[in-house]
Amino acid sequence: MAIRLGPNQYGKAEVRVVAVDRSSPRHTLVDLNVSTSLRGDFTAAHATGDNSHVLTTDTQKNTVFAFAREGVGTPEEFGLRLARHLAGSYDWITGARVAVASYGWDRITVAGAEHDHAFRRAGAEHDHAFRRAGAEVRTAVVTVDGEDEHVIAGLADLVVLKTTGSEFRGFPRDRYTTLAETTDRVLATAVTARWRYRAGDLDYDALFAGVRTALLETFASTHSLALQQSLHAMGVAVLEQFPEVAEIRLSMPNRHHFLQDLSAFGLDNPDVVYHADDRPYGLIEGTVLRDDVPPAEIAWQGTPGSC
Ligand SMILES: O=c1[nH]c(=O)c2[nH]c(=O)[nH]c2[nH]1
Questions:
Q1: Which of 1, 208, 237, 303 places its Cα 20 to 30 Å from the Cα of 216?
Q2: Which residues take part in binding 5-hydroxyisourate (predicted)?
Q3: Interface confidence: ipTM more than 0.90
Q4: Does residue 37 lie within any of the structural domains?
Q5: Which residues in the chain land under pLDDT 70?
């Protein structure tokens, strides 16, 4: 019985690259998940571990980031540029497949914010604060406990990002601290928020829309010194604007965007190309509540991500 190597391919899966165009104060961004894979004669690597024909997956990843520095364009164009380059790089590589998933981002709009400098160009559309299209979920948890009824409304996976207007500095340093202080970073999070209503007949749709808008507007407008500060400001805004809300609990992972070092390829990177890292992530959670409303812990029992 002859045993042989059948079809095979290899590449780097899910390179998360975010490219920001800062050429005007109205930033734009492209957010991609790029997977490459090569076909060709890689028999030697499989049979004997001879890697002389292996264009490493690390190199493929670097190529994705380096190509993003030169502009992304459409996913199709970016895929074509990459695939042509990879397929043409060595004689023994006969083909390349590049899969590009492109995540859409909408500008956050803020009513009545025309006087904020970040809105000056397009009415209420923010220059550098975005909401990822499509991912979010509306939630409700209702508890009936004897005579008591509790309604917790919420949303999950409301993904937002600011390309500027975020700092993080002034933290203590010990022997394990390597994080650099920054006065300008990309700030991104997936907001999970749950808020408990006071009793009463309420227009839940209108309240949901209002709370969601308050969360978005406040994320966009707050010059953030920490994600904790943004979280607090978002909770305060909801309680200030909606007397119907007794308390709000927020869970906000810090979706880190690391500036990709392109210097090894002779490229600068003036805050253009980022690696959107999915883990580990900071997880910032907090409750904002009113002093004069009795707690209702039973309403929260079994609700994940609230503290
Ligand atoms: O907004 C932040 N809060 C933190 O607590 C923290 N920790 C960290 O490493 N980066 C950040 N960013």
A1: 303
A2: 57, 168, 185, 254
A3: yes
A4: yes
A5: 112-123, 305-307
